[in-house]
Amino acid sequence: MKAIVLAGGFGTRLRPLSCTRPKLLFPVANRPLLDWTLERLAKSGIEEVILTVNYMAEAFVKRYRNFTYGMKITYSKEARPLRTGGPIKRAEKLIGHGGPFLVLNGDILTNMDYAELLKKHKEKKATATIALCRVEDPSRYGIAELTKNNRIRKFMEKPDRRKAPSNLANAGIYVLEPELFDYIPSGRPVSIEHEVFPKLAEEGKLYGHSFNGLWVDIGEPVDYLKANRLVLDTVVKQSQLGKDVIMGRETVIEAPSVVGEGATIGEASKIGSHTAVGDHSVVGKGVRIENSIVFGGTRVSDFASVKGAIVGEGVVIGRRVKIGDCCLVGDHAVIEDNVRFTRGVSVCPFRRVTESVLTPRCLM
Ligand code: GDD
Ligand code: MG
To answer: What is the pTM of this model?
Structure first.
């Protein structure tokens, strides 16, 4: 069986971190999000993955050139963004008409059982079967109204909270029959959620399969931090140190947390819980980092603290700097000594910051 992964989004809600890297390659517990998905696909017996790319396509090619979890990876590069349906239509020849195939929104972290979804799809002889999970806020997702027989009677993309027919959300994981290609017009951007699913629902050919497992859409910074926490809690579970990590005296790594290969953590620093520090990062002494994601090659100087924040690659954080909840620091930014960010401050890549910022805003 083949799978299509939609990987071409701009990650707008994760700017400025996504200005220098596609969100599917953001590290989750020190491994790109897409690695977690590809590994699951390989374990489920998928033999070929079609990555539909466009924004920063070369970053995917570079990452998976020599490293494909034993699967064949084919790229389908769009000349312009074709949204969520257009890329599927564009991959028609690569998929062929031999049987059902899997489609995944690439920005999802989940442990759902793809084989189970395929089984349900076959039982119902559906044209399309959507994995569904319960959510708090239906207005952020595609929402399905399900019959007792698991047929989707109605599909609404991001409905107004009051008009949502249920809180069963499209999990961004589908099994589709080749017949579905006939529902997608070619050569233009198509939203499968707006143009295809509602029509299939009307025709009685759309089914749903609800599941209760781990599921996060990494759309916004809070979701990204949540995904990192979930993987640390359920997969990593302990304090995990990569190869050649150097630790100072009285340093504590509180579980669950990961520290990447070749990192240095200075004396009397406390990392964790729920923290990922990337490869080759250098953390000084007396530093506190908790509930945060620090990408690789970053320096956090003595007595600094990072709490509930995301810090990009190759960033330099000065001495006694304080970075608070939901702050995002873009790659290679420099935060000078004693600077304080309270909450919701974003810093663009390569920016140098010399003064504290005490209200949420983006420093361009
Ligand atoms: N190739 C390609 N081209 N991929 C795209 C494009 C494009 O033009 N636009 C978006 N994508 C990819 C994104 O990279 C992402 O993996 C996926 O398509 C979904 O796009 P998002 O922009 O993240 O959509 P969303 O999160 O607002 O909503 C979608 O996902 C929800 C579940 O997380 C919808 O499918 C909702 O119905 C669903 O509930
Ligand atoms: Mg999304």
So the answer is: 0.95
